[in-house]
Write a structure and sequence with these properties.
Elements: H1 3-10, H2 30-51, H3 58-67, H4 72-75, H5 80-83, H6 87-105, H7 114-122, H8 129-151, H9 157-168, H10 174-181, H11 191-195, H12 197-204, H13 210-215, H14 217-221
Helix pairs in contact: 2-3, 2-8, 2-10, 3-8, 8-9
């Protein structure tokens, strides 16, 4: 049970860079991305449970967040559009990741952990609330990365931001809609110009009960 080996090999994610096909002013690692996703997911989970009264397993959320790209220690950061280009490519990637987990990760985990870690690593974005929080947090981190690049003058990421915005509005969570209505204001860029017409129009349709807003007013003000 060489769990120490798992810990050492996991650190390779600090060196694996994201966006290998794009010029970036700020070079971000997969490990940095997973930390950011965990932080975003934590906030969404708090809103989802404390503000909207939906049951959320915070431990499950955070475990999914810090493992959701762990397979990239074996495969590297293969770009999402490449993975999903065709059905055959999607199926091939699933097979590759399954083999990589079995050959390079599974044996370094305690036996009683393996099934759980496998689901967190290979299928983190499940249809339950925890999985959808991870889906949203992953998208939001891409949006934040894009905003940082755009503010530095890297217009390549304008299209990435719009594509991500269009993906975010499809996540069916109250916390995500609340994020879209209020939190994106904190990024201090023009919503319609940079996030795109689709998110702008969707945001205009969102309305929350004043009592719900008051319940979380202290979070917005602090």
């Amino acid at each position: 049970m060489p769990f120490g080996t798992h810990l050492v090999e996991s650190r390779s994610l600090m060196e694996i860079k994201r966006y290998q096909n794009k010029y970036c002013f700020k070079k971000r690692s997969v490990a940095e991305h997973m930390w950011s996703v965990a932080k975003i997911a934590e906030g969404l989970a708090i809103w989802e449970s404390k503000k909207f009264g939906n049951k959320v397993d915070m431990a499950k959320v955070l475990q999914k967040a810090i493992n959701h790209d762990m397979i990239e220690q074996c495969t590297g950061d293969i770009l999402g559009p490449t993975k999903k280009k065709t059905q055959a490519m999607r199926e091939a990637m699933e097979e590759i990741e399954e083999i990589a987990f079995r050959e390079d990760i599974e044996s370094h985990l305690p036996k009683s952990w393996r099934n759980q870690f496998k689901s967190y690593i290979l299928n983190p974005k499940t249809d339950d609330v925890e999985g959808q929080i991870i889906r949203a947090a992953d998208i939001i981190d891409t949006m934040i990365e894009s905003i940082e690049e755009i503010k530095l003058g890297n217009d390549i990421f304008r299209a990435v931001l719009i594509d991500s915005s269009e993906s975010l509005i499809k996540v069916d969570l109250d916390s995500v809609r609340y994020f879209i209505k209020y939190a994106i204001l904190d990024f201090d860029i023009d919503i319609k110009e940079f996030f795109g017409k689709e998110l702008f129009s969707f945001r205009e349709t969102l309305h929350f009960d004043p009592a719900v807003f008051e319940a979380c007013k202290d979070i917005r003000e602090e």
